[in-house]
């Protein structure tokens, strides 16, 4: 089973991860334009280090197929799993602060012929909810969640603790 191995690695080393603060990016893109990805190179490489009070933070594993070496060395089994799945375009851990939400937005597909499927694997159980159009999905530790991120969606953390998820994108041809 893959999840128990990844969870054990997470529990052992997650406290060493470097979290990047993407709250201002979120305000600039999601709140103003209702659009998420793509995180531009400058925003990615110059994001400030997150604090415990940061609303939305990312601990990257891969960005545009380039490993974030500090994290891929800390979490080699997780990195190897992402590489085996061939999902290294955008992959990492996302942290959502207690009471924080990412408002309604969509992540555009990279082209008219390629669609993005967002995969999330929660690493803790909290009162967090993913809304995709009219559907509601509760975050449950170890329960894989997949959705087309070009659909309108939002996530909210209603709990009093951070929500952590491994997130990666799968790109596939648009079905006719």
Counting DSSP H or I runs of 4 or more residues, the number of helices is 5
Radius of gyration: 15 Å
What is the share of helical residues? Answer: 10-25%
Q: Count the E strands.
A: 11
- CATH superfamily placement: B-lactam Antibiotic, Isopenicillin N Synthase, Chain
In the CATH classification, which architecture applies?
Answer: Sandwich
Order of helices and strands: HEHHEEHHEEEEEEEE
Q: What is the CATH topology assignment?
A: Jelly Rolls
Total of domains: 1
Describe this structure in words.
With 176 residues, the protein is an alpha+beta fold. The chain has a single domain, classed as B-lactam Antibiotic, Isopenicillin N Synthase, Chain (Jelly Rolls). It is 24% helix and 35% strand. Strands 1, 2, 3, 4, 6, 9 and 11 form a seven-stranded antiparallel sheet that branches. Strand 2 and strand 3 (66-67) form a beta hairpin. The longest helix has 12 residues, at 2-13. The model has no long low-confidence stretch (mean pLDDT 90).
Any chance you could write out the topology, listing elements then pairs?
Blueprint: H1 2-13, E1 20-21, H2 23-33, H3 41-45, E2 56-63, E3 66-67, H4 69-74, H5 76-84, E4 90-96, E5 101-105, E6 114-122, E7 128-132, E8 135-138, E9 145-148, E10 153-157, E11 163-173
Antiparallel strand pairs: 1-2, 2-3, 2-4, 4-11, 5-10, 6-9, 6-11, 7-8, 7-10
């Amino acid at each position: 089973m893959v999840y128990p191995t990844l969870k054990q690695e997470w529990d052992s080393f997650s406290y060493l991860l470097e979290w990047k603060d993407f709250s201002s990016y979120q305000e600039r893109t999601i709140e103003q334009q209702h659009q998420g990805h793509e995180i531009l190179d400058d925003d990615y490489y110059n994001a400030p280090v997150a604090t415990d009070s940061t609303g939305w933070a990312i601990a990257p594993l891969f960005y545009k197929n380039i490993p974030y070496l500090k994290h891929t060395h800390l979490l080699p089994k997780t990195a190897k799993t992402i590489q085996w799945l061939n999902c290294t375009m955008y992959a990492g851990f996302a942290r959502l602060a207690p009471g924080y939400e990412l408002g309604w937005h969509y992540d555009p597909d990279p082209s008219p012929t390629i669609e993005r499927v967002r995969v999330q694997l929660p690493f803790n159980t909290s009162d967090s909810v993913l809304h995709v159009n009219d559907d509601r999905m509760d975050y449950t530790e170890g329960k894989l969640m997949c959705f087309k991120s070009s659909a309108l969606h939002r996530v909210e953390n209603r709990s009093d603790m951070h929500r952590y998820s491994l997130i990666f994108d799968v790109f596939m041809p648009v079905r006719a």
